[in-house]
Amino acid sequence: xxxxxxxxxxxxxxxxxxxxxxxxxxxxxxxxxxxxxxxxxxxxxxxxxxxxxxxxxxxxxxxxxxxxxxxxxxxxxxxxxxxxxxxxxxxxxxxxxxxxxxxxxxxxxxxxxxxxxxxxxxxxxxxxxxxxxxxxxxxxxxxxxxxxxxxxxxxxxxxxxxxxxxxxxxxxxxxxxxxxxxxxxxxxxxxxxxxxxxxxxxxxxxxxxxxxxxxxxxxxxxx
Length: 223
Hints:
Layout: H1 19-40, H2 46-73, H3 85-98, H4 102-109, H5 113-121, H6 141-155, H7 161-170, H8 177-185
Helix pairs in contact: 4-5, 7-8
């Protein structure tokens, strides 16, 4: 029996003008085919399917990050938008979780090692003008504990409530797993902007009694 061959599809005219849309449509069709195949699969190993999905998700997230990094990297360091104080603390916490050096953190987050060093040296500043701040106000020790519990869950997602409680117990902080679960379920209290104090008139009664100083903030590479 003669082997049947499929004749090649002729390329449409002016096909080079459609390569961009063709690439996008091809990827969309591949995504649809993969989703359909997963739905129809009847594998006896659900763990393998989960690993495959997570691996794909990690690769897609890496591509998203690459695209965002290309945009920011094209801006000179001195002209890039500055991180707000709460995000600076998040960066330092992420650096601690990843075990990055200052150079590694700077390279991954498109800032300079000097910026990381500056944030670390001013880590415990207080007040509304502090260079590094928490997202939620921490005025009591339980607020601090709740912040640590939530951050442990974010940066160490494989830790459950029991492991978090055990980890804190080794540090001398004894919490029950139910307390940890309650802290994780409770929404964080947002930091509210303080109202501006009313203006107070200052009057001078003699020469050189009052001096005025005008301060200007100049953005630098150090943040």
